[in-house]
């Protein structure tokens, strides 16, 4: 057993460990980590997390590239990747990617869910509905184009999405952003996987895309194994990758 910050204990089970090439300890039966991006980003938003996880000895990593055309499309793309994995899977979702892992995490080989400044809808809830309850500070920076895709204005991207990244990194994110279809905001979750699977949640206290109080509320109702608050923007996966990987590591340990 290992101690938990809130006083609970989490069983480690029959975990076998072996040393990796870089000297860290790797669990022989650890799950494959599948990373799921959110709106206005792609799989490359996980770049720093991928490098840090690999440095720590996690060699079973995948990052889904979702189309952001509907929750059903994105959940099915994620399920297809999970089905390709022979063995247990830990799903990690950022932003809207939290809604995706909530919808797609019902597969039997998914052993846990990690939410990174993410939506965690309940049954019948959509990201848009949740955002209306606690409007984000950067709501006015989002605008649709003539084809129905939603964009964050490039001149407002850094202050809205990634104010704790340097200007060059935020510029690249702004220019390469992947816009979702606006209708995706209204797509509701059917059966939330967090009601059946263990979960972990990271709150960004300086988030301007999802209100921090909304993140806290979503986290509290799922009774996660652990909630971590970071003094970070919405882009915590890029600005605080070590702390995000610490949380993922603890989820890996608990689900191995």
Automatic annotation (TrEMBL):
Protein name: AB hydrolase-1 domain-containing protein
Domain AB hydrolase-1: from-to ranges: 33-246
Any single Pfam family the record assigns to this protein: Abhydrolase_6
Residue segments, region Disordered: 1-26
Alphabetized SUPFAM superfamilies for the sequence: alpha/beta-Hydrolases
Chain segments annotated as transmembrane: none
Organism: Streptomyces hydrogenans
Record field: compositional bias (Polar residues): 15-26
């Amino acid at each position: 057993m290992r101690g938990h910050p809130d006083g609970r204990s989490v069983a480690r089970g029959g975990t076998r460990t072996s040393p990796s090439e870089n000297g860290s300890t790797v669990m022989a039966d650890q799950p494959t980590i599948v990373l799921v991006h959110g709106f206005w980003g792609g799989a490359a938003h996980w770049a720093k997390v991928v490098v840090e996880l690999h440095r720590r000895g996690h060699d079973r990593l995948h990052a889904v590239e979702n189309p952001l055309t509907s929750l059903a499309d994105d959940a099915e793309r994620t399920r297809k990747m999970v089905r390709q994995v022979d063995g247990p899977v830990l799903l990690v979702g950022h932003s809207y990617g939290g809604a995706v892992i909530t919808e797609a995490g019902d597969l039997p080989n998914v052993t846990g869910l990690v939410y990174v400044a993410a939506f965690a809808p309940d049954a019948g809830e959509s990201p848009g509905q949740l955002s209306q309850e606690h409007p984000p500070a950067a709501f006015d920076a989002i605008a649709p184009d003539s084809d129905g895709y939603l964009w964050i204005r490039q001149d407002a991207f850094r202050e809205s999405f990634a104010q704790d990244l340097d200007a060059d990194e935020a510029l690249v994110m702004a220019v390469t952003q992947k816009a979702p279809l606006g209708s995706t905001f209204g797509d509701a979750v059917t059966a939330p996987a967090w009601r059946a699977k263990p979960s972990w949640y990271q709150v960004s206290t300086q988030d301007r895309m999802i209100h921090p109080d909304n993140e806290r509320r979503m986290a509290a109702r799922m009774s996660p194994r652990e909630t971590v608050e970071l003094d970070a923007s919405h882009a915590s996966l890029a600005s605080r990758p070590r702390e995000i990987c610490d949380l993922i590591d603890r989820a890996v340990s608990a689900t191995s």
